[in-house]
Write a structure and sequence with these properties.
With 332 residues, this protein is an alpha/beta fold. It contains 14 helices and twelve strands. The strands form two sheets. It has a seven-stranded mixed β-sheet with strand order 1-3-2-4-11-5-12, sandwiched between helices. It has a five-stranded mixed β-sheet with strand order 8-7-9-6-10, with helices on both faces. Helix 8 links the parallel strand 7 and strand 8. Helix 5 runs parallel beside helix 14. The longest helix has 21 residues.
C-alpha cells in the first residue's frame, strides 16, 4: 500500500495556512526525495507495527512530497527485511522500520547472518518504546511485585513462566527475577504471544510476560493481572502499573525496553540523515501518530535525536549480548 500526495496541492495548502512552515523549509526537508520512499517493515500487514508504519508513512509523505510505500517483509526473525535495507543504496529512499530484534539482538541470536546491524545500519530515530508487562493469572497469590517475589521464592522449583520465545526479552527479565528470589523457575517458550496468552487463560501456566496489545483485553476482563512493566516509563493506558524499578526490583534486564525505530543503510549523508530525524519526529508527534502509538500500548519517542539514539544503540547492543549469554541462550 502506498501513500500519495500531490506536490502542487501541498504547496498551495502550505501557502494558505497561517501556521504552515515556510516553503523553503519544505523544500529543504524534501531535497533528497526525488522519487517514492520505501519503508521496509519486518512484520506482516495488519499488526501494530504495520499500522503505525502506515500512519507515519502518511505524515512522511506530506513532508517529503513523495509517496511512502510500506513494504512488508516478514520472516526469519526480521533478517529478511534487514538484509533488504542493508543492500539498498544509501540515498535515504529506502529505510527500515524495525524492532530491537531486527536492529540489535539478532546479532546475538544467530551464528550466521548476512549483515551486522551494529555496523551495517545507521540508526535515525526511535518511533516508540514497547514495554513488556509481567502478568499472572487472576487466582495467583500475588497482587504486586513484593507478593510475587515472595510467592516464587516459597515455591522454589515448582513454578513455570511463559514467554513468546527463546532469547526473548521476557526470558531475560524472568531469569533475573528467578535468580533474585532463588526460585529456580522453569521457562516455557511459546511460538508467539498469542499461544502464551492462551496457555495462561487455560491455567497451564500462571506467570507470563508480553505486550500491552496482546494482554490488555484479559486485564480488562479480570482474567489476568498486570504487576510491572519494563523500561523507565509506565504504559500510558496502564498508568496504575509500576515499572520494575518503581516496584523495587530494578535490574539491567528490566531497565531495558524494546522499541520500534527507523534505520537506514550505513553511509547515508549526514544532511539527509538529519532531514529524516526531523521528519520522523514530526510524524511521531503528530496528533494521529501519537494517538495510534498510545492506542497500541507503546510509549511515543517524541524527543529522540540521531546522537542520542546512536549512543543508546551502541551501548544497548553489548548489554543485550551479555544478558543473553548470562541466561544461557545459545545462538542458532
Amino acid at each position: 500500500m502506498a501513500f500519495f500526495i500531490n506536490r502542487r496541492r501541498l504547496l498551495a495548502t502550505a501557502a494558505s495556512a497561517a501556521a504552515a512552515a515556510p516553503l523553503s523549509a519544505w523544500a529543504e526537508q524534501a531535497s533528497f526525495a526525488t522519487r517514492p520512499v520505501r519503508m521496509v517493515v519486518p512484520f506482516a500487514a495488519g499488526g501494530a507495527t504495520d499500522i503505525i508504519a502506515r500512519v507515519l508513512g502518511k505524515h512522511l509523505a506530506e513532508t517529503f512530497g513523495q509517496a511512502v510505500i510500506v513494504d512488508n517483509k516478514p520472516g526469519a526473525s526480521g533478517l529478511i527485511s534487514g538484509e533488504t535495507v542493508v543492500r539498498a543504496p544509501a540515498d535515504g529512499l529506502t529505510v527500515l522500520m524495525g524492532s530491537t530484534t531486527t536492529m540489535l539482538t539478532n546479532k546475538y541470536l544467530f551464528t550466521k547472518t548476512s549483515y551486522d546491524p551494529l555496523t551495517d545500519l545507521l540508526p535515525i530515530s526511535r518511533v516508540c518504546t514497547a514495554p513488556l508487562i509481567l502478568t499472572v493469572t487472576s487466582d495467583a497469590p500475588a497482587s504486586d511485585m513484593k507478593e510475587f517475589m515472595a510467592w516464587i521464592k516459597a515455591n522454589k522449583g515448582k513454578l513455570s513462566y511463559g514467554t513468546y520465545g527463546i532469547g526473548s526479552h521476557a526470558q531475560l527479565v524472568f531469569t533475573t527475577l528467578s535468580e533474585m528470589a532463588g526460585a529456580d523457575m522453569t521457562h516455557v517458550a511459546y511460538k508467539g504471544e498469542a499461544p502464551m496468552a492462551q496457555s495462561l487463560l487455560g491455567d497451564n501456566i500462571k506467570i507470563g510476560m508480553g505486550s500491552f496489545l496482546t494482554l490488555k483485553p484479559y486485564f480488562d476482563s479480570g482474567k489476568l493481572r498486570p504487576l510491572a512493566v519494563t523500561g523507565g516509563q509506565r504504559v500510558p493506558l496502564l498508568q496504575h502499573v509500576p515499572t520494575f524499578a518503581e516496584a523495587g526490583y530494578a535490574s539491567e534486564a528490566a531497565s531495558l525496553v524494546g522499541w520500534l525505530a527507523i534505520a537506514v543503510p550505513k553511509g547515508l549523508p549526514a544532511d539527509i540523515a538529519k532531514q529524516w530525524e526531523k521528519a520522523v519526529n514530526r510524524a511521531v508527534t503528530s496528533r494521529e501518530g501519537k494517538a495510534r502509538i498510545i492506542a497500541s500500548g507503546f510509549v511515543p519517542a517524541d524527543d529522540d535525536t540521531l546522537d542520542k539514539f546512536g549512543k543508546d544503540w551502541a551501548s544497548e547492543g553489548p548489554l543485550w549480548g551479555k544478558l543473553l549469554k548470562q541466561a544461557g541462550v545459545q545462538p542458532s
